[in-house]
Amino acid sequence: MEFECIILEIKEKVGLITLHRPKALNALNDQLMNELGSALKSLDSNEAIQCIVITGSEKAFAAGADIAAMANYSFMDTYKGDYITRNWETIRQIRKPVIAAVAGYALGGGCELAMMCDFIIAAENAKFGQPEIKLGTLPGAGGTQRLPRAISKSKAMDMCLTARMMDAAEAERAGLVSRVVPQEMLLEEAMAAASTIASMSLPIVMMIKESVNRAYETTLSEGVHFERRLFQASFGTEDQKEGMAAFLEKRSAVFKNQ
Ligand code: CAA
């Protein structure tokens, strides 16, 4: 499939998606989100791929939903037609890990897209924010829900109500991002993390992703129960036998994704 608003590259077992609307700071219009959804689905169903990285440019991961495209929408366009965010949830259906490598602005839908990924690695120049209030609207792709879970209610309220941006250091302190690296190291760091994940057993990786995500959807006792069932299920895989045998034989494991 030909893409115009993203660049899709395959680097060994890692799928790298670069958001690419440089003139609009990667503003997330329908076309970009459709292309992103298609690329993610194709990588998820590609057996040769074990991890996915989404990145943007040095200046912007994404500056939010496309304001020019939505400025004149009516309530009926957005409600009945479900315009703007109708295809944004595709990323949540992806079963392989998705890492956001964020440099520059991750604002509005850009911050929300990064938060939909499994973890965020940020460059030192990254800036996160939910400035929708300045546009007379509010976050529409999970910002008011994922931000409090990621960084506490107090900081989430502060960001959504004042529209202030959070720099990379604060985002790391607050737990929004997992690591901060110099800008020139961002892609290298994200690809190295993806390659590490890709060297593991894919079914176990998928079980871990599923189990961690369950923590956001259920009670602690249900989540622990769910985790225990997956832990037990892992003993039905060949990769568990290989991983433990390799440890005991003091060698590296060779996983078959079985
Ligand atoms: N939508 C459409 N175009 C955008 C855009 C957006 N979200 N963000 C930036 N652009 C465009 C600008 O209009 C500009 O285009 P022109 O050159 O044609 O004028 C170009 O990108 C460069 O932007 P700036 O000149 O503004 O660059 P800057 O360096 O001065 O400022 C910025 C950068 C602070 C990120 C600023 O562009 C900005 O505030 N952008 C909007 C951020 C925003 O409000 N995001 C939330 C969108 S709503 C949303 O996302 C809803 C949701 O939850 C789903």
UniProtKB/TrEMBL annotation:
Catalytic activity: a 4-saturated-(3S)-3-hydroxyacyl-CoA = a (3E)-enoyl-CoA + H2O; a (3S)-3-hydroxyacyl-CoA = a (2E)-enoyl-CoA + H2O
One BP term from GO: fatty acid beta-oxidation
InterPro entries given in the database record: ClpP/crotonase-like_dom_sf, Enoyl-CoA_hyd/isom_CS, Enoyl-CoA_hydra/iso, Enoyl-CoA_hydra_C
EC number(s) recorded for this UniProt protein: 4.2.1.17
Keywords attached to this entry: Fatty acid metabolism, Lipid metabolism, Lyase
Transferase keyword on record: no
EC class name: lyase
GO MF term list: enoyl-CoA hydratase activity
PROSITE patterns (alphabetical): ENOYL_COA_HYDRATASE (PS00166)
Family annotation (PANTHER family): ENOYL-COA HYDRATASE, MITOCHONDRIAL, ENOYL-COA HYDRATASE-RELATED
Similarity remark: Belongs to the enoyl-CoA hydratase/isomerase family.
Reported function: Could possibly oxidize fatty acids using specific components.
Protein name in the entry: enoyl-CoA hydratase
